[in-house]
Specification:
Radius of gyration of chain B: 30 Å
Number of domains of chain A: 2
Helix content of chain B: 55-70%
Structural class of chain A: alpha+beta
Order of helices and strands of chain A: EHEHHHEHE
Shape of chain B: elongated
Strand content of chain A: 5-15%
Shape of chain A: elongated
Order of helices and strands of chain B: HHHHHHHHHHHHHHHHHHEHHHHHHH
CATH topology of the largest domain in chain A: Alpha-Beta Plaits
Helix content of chain A: 40-55%
Number of strands of chain A: 4
Largest interface: A-B, 92 and 98 residues
Oligomer: heterodimer
Distance between the termini of chain B: 15 Å
Largest sheet of chain A: 4 strands, antiparallel
């Protein structure tokens, strides 16, 4: 997770295609990118950056299954153990009638679970202060950031020349 | 990459040659300006309706539902009619954002945000009615299964009315989560432009969003799964609403056709309401570039399709009533058509079945006036449908001695007007607080939906006007210190001048020889440029590089050797250097000779132009 007081050297690009080329170059040059920021999701970026596929959907499956079990087992318990009542001459354990609520709770648990997980693992939530490098990243700039803590000046120069040779329109530093 | 194959016949979904920044400006503008006079008047009017509605609800709670004129025979009147009507309207948002996302329909990006907001507000209006129609609103928590002191006696999990409670609560929650998750990046955009107290508020609303690559990846994964589960959900909700009727023993209600027929009707009415609202919104907020005639036509096609399904369902009901030889069923439909409420039946038929057929005409589908008019007509027709199903069926039950007629009182009408007020108050507030069109999603389709990239007038001008700055090198050179005044320490971009020179020199070398009268004396191309991106493998960026190398037409490209193209690409480095242009001259030849069918067929076989 993010440690306090990172010194970040970042370059801003004007187009996602230029950024993609630059990220590819950084990978070829074995430069260690801290993060890439963009105003919208860029397709094709994850594999170049070496980001693994998110496992959020697996979590979603587990939450959904919990919903299924909760609903079905609860209704079964209520109508066979806790307070059996005959409705319309049907058996106590009338499985088909349980399907709609079981389905709804599956969806509900899956959605709530995934959304809560998403905000938790991203470290986002109401009142969280945004660590923005530049205000235009949510507008029309595409950003590659390097963590320069403990880097020698020659390494930093190498990063700067990387930015200029890949077409960054601006290069800046910021302490996060 | 940008080399998505875009059909040449697709109309653009974003017009006005927008840049990313222009999109931000346009879509944030309504949240940053003081509202105009029309908005204020509409808001006051809605607020008045809402206040009157609240008064009528209090009246109902004080005097009981007897104040609605309901009687022993007609137990459900306007209340459940309104409930089903609002729930139906609430179906378009999730359909647009979920089902159209799964089907990769890019036009949804122009309308999904507003439609989702509409869904949430409509479901809130709908949920009000089951709450108040029970009369004793203060014990409405009896609906929910909770550990209680009555045995414990649980709610009846076998009842469709309880399924409905679960369906609607789930639908509301999931829609809200989906909508808000989509809003977070856009709130961040508004935050980063705002100052003072607004920055604080939007900072809170945007949850600390930065646009990190990993966050975007998870955000997309989340959106896709939410869309995946919301799709069966939206179908289940109106299916379960239809079960409220279909599982009963009332002739005219207990038909197996109800679930699909209700779902189609819900989408039908939902799209009508989306159109009613969007046509006004796009005009008032100047969003014509984002909600184009193309969007309107697409929605009208959905209205036509679902309206026809509803029409077939009406006729099927009549046929089955006749074919079943079941007199009670037959009487129910006979009564609807020629009984005391015949006017609502024929109003329904006219509004839902006959008038939407006008949309078979392309002219009608693309006419703002007719679309607006018909969207209102459908809204009215779908209200009639629910009234026909509920009130007119109940009015003539098994015992002629208990037959009855029902006219709503001012209280019941007032509550309906009140929900319209609530709906518009919330919607109008939404248009001032949040971007009405999803900013990030619009940006992500710009290069496959912008009119400078696709459609008949595509020019492929790149968004920085001096299109010669590949890789933005020149751009960096020019703008180096422009933003030195920002809070960050701007570093003078390292020595870049040599790089620029090098790039320019390489282009000079690669300039393909000029011939014919397409060039002026100075050797600049003045002829008609062709759209090189018709060649699979060439995107807008590559086209620019080719243009810079002097290749502007299909004919030129066809006459250029593969090795030459390769060296143009290699001069650009990066991903371009690794491209394989082997088929490009041959593809360009077909384009030049107008052999589109052949080219299309070949491109279907090609993978990325290789």
């Amino acid at each position: 997770m993010a440690s306090a007081n990172k010194e970040v050297l970042f370059g801003l690009y004007d187009d996602e295609e230029i950024l993609l080329t630059a990220v590819q170059r950084a990978k070829d040059d074995h430069l260690d990118i801290m993060d890439v920021y963009s105003p919208f999701p860029i397709h094709g970026l994850d594999p170049i950056m070496g980001l693994k596929e998110s496992r959020l959907h697996q979590a979603g499956f587990i939450y959904g299954s919990m919903g299924t079990l909760t609903a079905f087992l609860f209704m079964s318990w209520v109508f066979t153990r806790d307070w059996p009542v005959i409705f319309g001459g049907k058996p106590y354990w009338s499985v088909p009638a349980f399907i709609p609520i079981t389905f709804e709770l599956t969806v509900l648990f899956c959605a709530i679970g995934m959304v809560v997980t998403f905000y938790t693992i991203c470290g986002l939530g109401p009142g969280v202060e945004a660590k923005t490098l530049d205000d235009r990243i949510t507008d029309d700039k595409f950003c590659i950031a390097f963590d320069t803590v403990g880097q020698s000046s020659s390494e930093i120069d190498k990063l700067k020349s990387f930015f200029s040779s890949t077409g960054a329109s601006e290069v800046k530093t910021k302490v996060l | 990459m940008s080399h998505a194959v875009v059909s040449p016949i697709r109309e653009p979904l974003i017009t006005g040659n927008k840049t990313y920044h222009q999109i931000t400006e346009d879509l944030c503008a309504p949240t940053e300006k003081a509202p105009g006079g029309a908005w204020v008047i509409a808001f006051m009017l809605s607020l008045m309706c809402m206040t009157f509605g609240v008064f009528c609800i209090l009246w109902t709670i004080w005097f009981g539902i007897g104040s609605w004129n309901l009687n022993r025979t007609i137990g459900w009147g306007w209340d459940i009619t309104n409930f089903v009507w609002w729930i139906g309207i609430g179906h378009a948002g999730t359909l647009i954002s979920a089902i159209l996302l799964l089907f990769r329909q890019k036009w949804r990006t122009g309308v999904n945000r507003a439609a989702e907001a509409m869904t949430i507000f409509a479901v809130m209006c709908a949920a009000l009615f089951p709450g108040i129609h029970v009369g004793r609103m203060w014990v409405v928590f009896f609906f929910f299964p909770y550990p209680n002191t009555r045995g414990p006696l649980w709610v009846n999990f076998n009842s469709p009315l309880l399924w409905d409670l679960f369906a609607i609560s789930t639908y509301f929650t999931v829609s809200l989560l989906f909508w808000y998750t989509g809003l977070v990046p856009d709130f961040a955009t508004v935050r980063d432009r705002a100052k003072g107290i607004r920055k604080k508020i939007y900072g809170f609303l945007s949850f600390g969003w930065t646009g990190s690559a990993k966050h975007w990846q998870r955000w997309e994964s989340l959106s896709l799964i939410l869309a995946g589960i919301a799709t069966p959900l939206v179908l289940s909700v109106h299916t379960i609403v239809s079960f409220d009727f279909a599982t009963s023993v009332i002739p005219g209600w207990h038909t197996t056709i109800f679930p699909p027929y209700f779902v189609a009707g819900a989408i039908f009415s939902g799209f009508a309401m989306v159109l009613t609202l969007m046509l006004i919104t796009r005009k008032v907020l100047h969003l014509e570039d984002y909600i184009t005639i193309e969007h309107i036509e697409s929605m009208n096609k959905v209205i036509l399709a679902t309206g026809s399904i509803v029409g077939v369902a009406y006729l099927t009901e009549l046929f089955v009533a006749w074919y079943s030889q079941y007199p009670y069923e037959q009487f129910a439909f006979f009564n609807r058509a020629v009984g005391p409420y015949y006017w609502s039946y024929w109003g329904m038929m006219a509004c839902n079945v006959i008038t939407p057929q006008l949309f078979w005409s392309r002219k009608m589908r693309r006419s703002i006036f007719w679309t607006f008019l018909l969207s209102i007509v459908v809204n009215i027709g779908m209200w009639f449908e629910r009234f026909v199903i509920i009130a007119t069926t109940l009015a003539r039950d098994y015992l002629p001695s208990s037959w009855s007629y029902y006219v709503p009182t001012w209280v019941e009408i007032g509550i309906f007007i009140g929900t319209i007020g609530i709906f518009f108050v919330l919607y109008l507030l939404f248009t001032r607080v949040a971007p009405v069109v999803a900013i990030a999603e619009i940006k992500s389709i710009l290069k496959t939906g912008g009119n400078q990239y696709v459609g008949p007038n595509a020019t492929h001008h790149h968004h920085h006007d001096h299109g010669h700055s590949d890789h933005g090198v020149q751009h960096a050179f020019q703008k180096g210190g422009d933003h030195a005044g920002t809070h960050d320490a701007a570093i003078a971009a390292a020595p870049i001048a040599p790089v620029v020179k090098e790039a320019v020199a390489e282009k000079e070398v690669e300039k393909v020889e000029a011939k014919s009268n397409d060039f002026d004396a100075a050797g600049n191309f003045i002829g008609k440029k062709d759209d090189l991106t018709k060649v699979e493998g060439i995107g807008p960026k590559v086209q620019e590089h080719l243009n810079n190398a002097g290749i502007f037409t299909w004919a030129q490209l066809a006459n250029t050797e593969v090795s030459k193209i390769k060296s143009v690409l290699e001069a650009q480095g990066g991903v371009y250097a690794r491209m394989v242009p082997g088929t490009w001259p041959e593809q360009a030849k077909m384009a030049h000779e107008g052999r589109w069918d052949e080219l299309q067929k070949w491109q279907d076989e090609l993978d990325g132009g290789v």
